[in-house]
Hints:
Elements: E1 3-7, E2 14-19, E3 22-24, E4 40-42, E5 47-49, H1 51-54, E6 64-65, H2 88-107, E7 112-117, H3 125-141, E8 146-151, H4 152-156, E9 171-176, E10 180-188, E11 194-203, H5 207-226, H6 234-250, E12 254-260, E13 265-271, H7 272-278, H8 280-298, E14 305-308, H9 318-324, E15 329-332, H10 337-346, E16 360-361, E17 363-364, E18 378-382, E19 395-398, E20 401-404, E21 410-414, E22 422-423, E23 437-442, E24 445-448, E25 460-462, E26 467-472, E27 475-482
Parallel strand pairs: 1-7, 7-8, 8-16, 9-14, 14-15, 21-22
Antiparallel strand pairs: 1-2, 2-3, 4-5, 4-6, 9-10, 10-11, 11-17, 12-13, 18-26, 19-20, 19-27, 21-23, 23-24, 24-25, 26-27
Helix pairs in contact: 5-6
Amino acid sequence: MPVLGxxxxxxxxxxxxxxxxxxxxxLIEGGGPLGCLGLAFHDGKxxxxxxxxxxxxxxxxxxxxxxxxxxxxxETSPLGxxxxxxxxxxxxxxxxxxxCARVTAVTGTPQKAVLAVPGDYLLDAATEEERIGLLLGMAxxxxxxxxxxxxxxxxxxxxxxxxxFDSSLPLLMxxxxxxxxxxxxxxxxxxxxxxxxxxxxxxxxGFGELLRHITGTMANRFLRHTTFDIQEDGKTGQAFYNQxxxxxxxxxxxxxxxxxxGTRTYELIATRDQLAADLSGFNQAVLQGAQAIFKKxxxxxxxxxxxxxxxxxxxxxxxxxxxxAGLSRVLHLPPGAAAAGAARLGAQRETRDEIAxxxxxxxxxxxxxxxxxxxxxxxxxxxARRPSPARRPSHALCEGLGHALDGxxxxxxxxxxLSPDLTLPEEFDxxxxxxxxxxxxxxxxxxxxxxxxxxxxxxxxxEAGDRLTIQHGVHQTEVLFAYxxxxxxxxxxx
Length: 494
């Protein structure tokens, strides 16, 4: 029985299908983080939504709103026919109607559907009654066979693609929407569930503000470099925004901006370091939000897992900032995690005769949480706390054995049978190829790429003092990265 999961995030609507235990994602083109933004456009005569509305976001900003979903209510929006502005709920309905039509054109009519909704829809009883009530009305109008509504963060933990994590520890989910960051703290229950216990919305660090900020900072660099002001013309500003968004999503280290006026071409090469510097304040705001929710829940940051959605992972350096602050267990979720998790959850639920009886859930059941795999290692990079920039490491050490890092582009760590540069203890011999970790040297630094244990969108810088924890079954070891000017002090293992 096919079950449709819909992730109602205004920073990237997603859809996934679960059929006979297998998930299908993506269902439509143009998904992923920032793929289908929850935008609405109306020029007084006609309107459009999602990617079509985004084409006008910078060219005609007064005719576009990015608040239809974050302000879901009967409140009047600034858009609509002349003299008759539409409520935000109606803009959201038109958006959802169009989006569902695109999805069902691929999947056909689903037999069941589950909606994964933003955490602030469930903030309190009054908010939940209004917003969930509006969603139930939309679902009835669109003839969606609802089997449930679930907190988006809880749904994400049910995605079958995510890596194993210790579900006996608290978990903090960090997600970024258009108008702010959502932080959801889960606590383990006696029956193995992870249940939402606290929630915080950090305003002014959503992708609406973020994209405008980096488009502006990059436009200023472009002006200084070329003397051409891209903000004088709406269409040119829209083209520059499109390129900036591509730069953010792509994860490339350098990006080639190019604006062609018809008579002349203007160009700029921007770097990832510049982008990261522009967004450092956003990263710090997320960290402060995380520290605040821990303080509210009982004091210092506990031993816990921090889960970053694919949207949050777009912020360059965010994982490193969290790890440097002591939040070392960082789990990177794949795109569409809430949609895939909602579809999987729906396979265990039944539709209701009365739409008002559709349940709203705040937990991830133990049966749907990821189980530890016997044939792969779990790898985590633990950043050292340091007051100043660290040195580039010269050696990697594991249980008394070390190996120099210089003189090669790739450095391997793994079981003896794979002939790695640095050999793991013999209890890891059974891990086979799944126990190998590759480090890459680039730009004069050592990096951990998307690894066995993470699905990060960006590589992680390795510095002296950092540690790599490697776990296989009940066995665990650590690799320490050190700066050792006197190599005679290190016992090499080849």
